[in-house]
What does this fold into?
Amino acid sequence: MFYIHLHVASWFIALILFFTSWYLLSIDKQQPAKIAHSINRIIFLVIFYTGFILIYRYTQAPVWENFGAEAVVKAIGGVYLVCLMEWLISRFQKKLPSRGLVIQFFLVLLMVLALGFGRLPWGFLP
Ligand code: HEM
It folds into this structure.
């Protein structure tokens, strides 16, 4: 339960920091955006740490039988989301086209939230 809470708290903070950096870059505030993104990189480590502990516990628990595949898809989606946040910020900094990655970001986010909250059995939602 502790790791689920830490996991949810960390990706929630990461999303807030990601949208903050995005907004700051959109109004050309490079330096504050860099600070928000640097803090976010530390949060990414917490997401990975808690996510990997959770997936390891999945492999050791009876839920693995029924939900193993979905949990692995969820975990890969989570890793990919962190990559997307990293790529997007770097593209926003350089003002490169990023619509394709933005679409991927929202689709994968939707999928990961649906799997995490909607399908997978561990968590704090009833
Ligand atoms: C930004 C990235 C991520 C987001 C938005 C995210 C989202 C979520 C959500 C919504 C849950 C369900 C929590 C609940 O039901 O209370 C969850 C649980 C979980 N996450 Fe993540 N996650 C991310 C990254 C990762 C990574 C990188 C991994 C693994 C390497 C991972 C592995 C897991 C596992 C194994 C669970 C437990 C599944 C369950 O609820 O039964 N996640 N995550």
